[in-house]
Design brief:
The protein has helices at 13-22, 36-43, 59-63, 83-88, 101-116, 119-127, 156-167, 181-187, 194-200, 220-225, 243-252, 291-309, and strands spanning 4-7, 24-27, 48-51, 70-73, 92-94, 148-152, 171-175, 190-191, 203-206, 231-234, 257-260, 280-282. By secondary structure, the protein is α/β, with parallel strands linked by helices. The protein starts with a strand and ends in a 17-residue tail after the last helix. The structure holds (2R)-2,3-dihydroxypropanoic acid.
Length: 326
């Protein structure tokens, strides 16, 4: 008999086909995530869950799922899952690292360019019928080449952004809890403390996971240290930036602009004051959204799920200690 699993959204075909070939799978067909009661109900019967970052997988859900062996998240981030609770129950958790690095780094750079050169604002200007002539002071922005980029977090995606920045002749500073002397040499990076990075950077791009330590890592105090021409880019997780402090910093001219792929909360409510600001570019959490990358993510999530159902270590485990790994 095939193991029963629940897939919380329609994922790209390749991954779905792999799941359907091995499992007795029910797939939530809605465009929005399954409501909590649905998830709690479905969890009762399944051995595996293929979840997305929009599903809260906590102790309550695990309690409702006595047969659950594996949670496979189709994302590299897994702050939606209480991993400690999963480990305590012997449930293996998988994620999708590596394959989305370049696509996400491309996108972080796209936000650097969009905000610095005011592209969304300029598009609106044209569509609103306001383009009457070439103007010497029309929609002036900030140069990217020769500017200083501050990367907070020098993991896979942070270093991918650094590689791209070298092509633009940027000076690159970084801060991380782990120093990367190999990359300093290879890419010409300068390691600085967090405050120095905030003070010296023209662009600040965030590449850290959401944890209790990084929650509201960027708030009023940090904006105070930034240059009035600084541009903040967030492609990591929304709650790393305090949204109220961000609004105040953008509105008062404490910083010049920001580009957000992620917000707190998601989706951003339509009455959020950030949506009233021209110097705030917001897109709906799409940094990894290329056809090729989402296909790979779905396939990797399927592989993790199937391995966990077989009682094997998934290729990309978050809590390998469940199977005696490190
Ligand atoms: C992730 O994988 O964590 C991204 O936020 C979505 O691809």
């Amino acid at each position: 008999m095939k193991p029963k699993v629940y897939v919380t959204r329609l994922i790209p075909e390749k991954g779905l086909e792999m799941v359907l070939a091995f499992c007795d799978a029910e797939v939530w067909q809605g465009k929005l995530p399954p409501p909590r009661e649905v998830l709690l109900g479905k969890a009762q019967e399944v051995e595996g869950l293929l979840s997305l970052l929009t599903d809260r997988i906590d102790g309550q859900l695990m309690d409702a799922a006595p047969r659950l062996k594996v949670i496979s998240n189709m994302a590299v981030g897994y702050d939606n899952i209480d991993v400690e609770e999963a480990t305590r129950r012997g449930i293996i958790v998988g994620n999708t690292p590596g394959i989305l690095t370049d696509t996400t780094a491309d996108f972080a750079f796209a936000l650097v360019m969009a905000t610095a050169r005011r592209i969304p604002e300029a598009c609106r200007y044209v569509r609103d019928g306001r383009w009457k002539t070439w103007g010497p002071k029309l929609l002036l922005g900030w140069d990217i080449h020769g500017a200083t980029l501050g990367l907070v977090g020098m993991g896979r995606i942070g270093s991918g952004v650094a590689r791209r920045a070298t092509g633009f002749g940027m000076r690159i500073l970084y801060y991380d809890v782990v120093r990367r002397e190999d990359l300093e040499e290879e890419l010409g990076l300068e390691f600085v403390d967090f405050e120095t990075l905030l003070e010296r950077s023209d662009f600040i791009s965030l590449h850290v996971p959401l944890t209790s330590e990084t929650h509201h890592l960027i708030g009023t105090e940090q904006f105070r240290l930034m240059k009035p021409t600084a541009i903040l880019i967030n492609t990591s997780r929304g709650p790393i930036v305090d949204p109220q402090a961000l609004y105040e910093a953008l509105k008062s001219g404490q910083i010049a602009a920001c580009g957000l792929d992620v917000t707190e909360p998601e989706p951003i409510p339509m009455d959020d004051p950030l949506l009233t600001l021209d110097n705030c570019v917001i897109v709906p959490h799409i940094a990894s959204a290329s056809i090729a990358t989402r296909t790979k993510m779905a396939a990797m999530a399927a592989e993790n799920l199937i391995a966990g159902l077989k009682g094997e270590m998934p290729p990309h485990p978050v809590n390998p200690e469940v199977f005696g790994g490190i």
